[in-house]
What does this fold into?
Amino acid sequence: LEGLSIQAMGVGVTIEPQVRGVRLRDLDIVGGTVGLVIGDEDCLDESCVDPVDIELADSYISANVSGGMRAVGQDIRVLRNQWLGNGHNGESLPQIRMRCLGVACSDILIQGNVFDATAGPGGTRCSDDEIRVEGLATAVRILENQISEDPARVESSCGGIVFARAPGAVQTLFEDVVIGRNAIESVGGEGIALSSCHDCFVENNTISINRNGYSIGINAPVRRGFASHAFLERLNVRNNSIYLGPNILFTSIAIK
It folds into this structure.
């Protein structure tokens, strides 16, 4: 699927469970509810058959009110896209959300994208994470993305790259994760955050936050939530550059 301009009242593009081998390129998806939905994030048992081998590249996704992409599956690649003003605005609506609560998402690559939640029409405010992964995931690479917000339109809940606990007592475990060479500027509470992670690397990222209030450059709690949420193990944080402005409360790196 290539070269389409989509202005939808609902979801721009939907890829159903069990679908394999889809390439989406040079799309313009504007003004719907969600730009792209891959799989069914509400299927919570092991009988779910997620999509496999899906690629979105070189596309423009903007002003979709409930987020840019919702995805579950295996071998998903998100490459060189622009994500502008999708979701956020006071609700829990990241631009990209992978809520992997039934079967683990695996072999995920998010690379070379540009994110700005505050670039939407009508003064969109950044009030959630730009990239959020929840639940179960393995072999995830988030590389060379640019996240930059208008600091005048950023809430404390505005985050950069976040690996978050699943809701309630649903199992949470992330394995073999690399967050590298990303540039994150003017987010709110957390530049990079991850919990329940085993063998995870956070390296060669640049984070700059200059605001009044509570912020953490890299936040890595040992565990959040229930016994089904794994403890943090074998975390590697190295070669990152972090600037926090003079009015920031808290710290550059928190492992706690």
Notes: The chain is about 0% helix and 50% strand. The two ends are 45 Å apart (CA to CA). The first strand starts at residue 5 and ends at 7.
